[in-house]
Amino acid sequence: IVSGVVVCWCAVWLYILLTRRACTSKARLDGKTVIITGSNSGIGKATALDLAARGARVIMACRNVDRALQVRKRIADKTRNNNIIVKSIDLSDMLSVRQFAEDVNNYEPRLDVLIHNAGVLIPEKLTTDQGLNTIFATNHFGPFLLTHLLMGLLKRTGKSRIIFVSSSAHSIGNLDLSNPNPKKDASTSRLLFSWNMYCSSKLAGVLCARELARRLEGSGVTANCLHPGYVYTSILCNPCPNTVAEHVFTFLFPLIMTKRQGAQTTIHLAVSEELERVSGKYFSNCMEKTPGNVTEDVELAGKYWRLCEAIVG
Questions:
Q1: InterPro entries from the xrefs (predicted)?
Q2: I need a labelling partner for 273 at 20 to 30 A (CA). Which of 96, 109, 189, 191 fits?
């Protein structure tokens, strides 16, 4: 039995190793500006490192500014690119989103890539001070508003890309148009509620990304979303910061990716030349995939879009 388990494990590990893809583009981003939310850890940090190495001006949009400044220094030292900026944003706070967008619009002459990477699964508080579901606010309402506020700059820049880091969990999410800002009831556990909200917020993101792509047709701006894979980050497994531990864990559990591996599809969408005109698609493992069926519902997308507009003001 033991030998059979070992053989099966080796077969799975080998299959995943042989089929896992990485971004192969060597494109440079000199003179281009990229915003990455949640880029002080996880795949956001790995994405920032890669794009900075390609010469981009990287704006790290983070809630924890002190940590972001430490990461910024390490990235700058490693890439020899000092054109890395840290700006404060709390995506669960619509006022903070507006202040961030105002600052970018006032001081940045261009925006080539907007990467919505930040996300939360189990927040400290389930409801924000503004009365919003914290998971929905962070994972969807905040990015929705930020995209709207930066759209003018994206369009003026031309050939810009908007990227939503989603999850395959969107396929089991549910959107109730009669209750777009859900609150936890007493009969539901905090963990189950948070998981349901995470899945549903990711569904909201995919649905609206595809609706956004329809609205942007002919504008020169594209919008795509992606599933990064199952990555060794705090949103999945509260990782040890030790890089050796990360690689040991991902070796023992081959479905789990390192942060660098998990960032590859985001990087692919941000830099690959062949995707310049591709919009409204869903990607995983650096390939186009088919998202959940409900994301094809154009009528639902339109209705939900208008609800989101009303919620974020």
A1: NAD(P)-bd_dom_sf (IPR036291), SDR_fam (IPR002347)
A2: 109
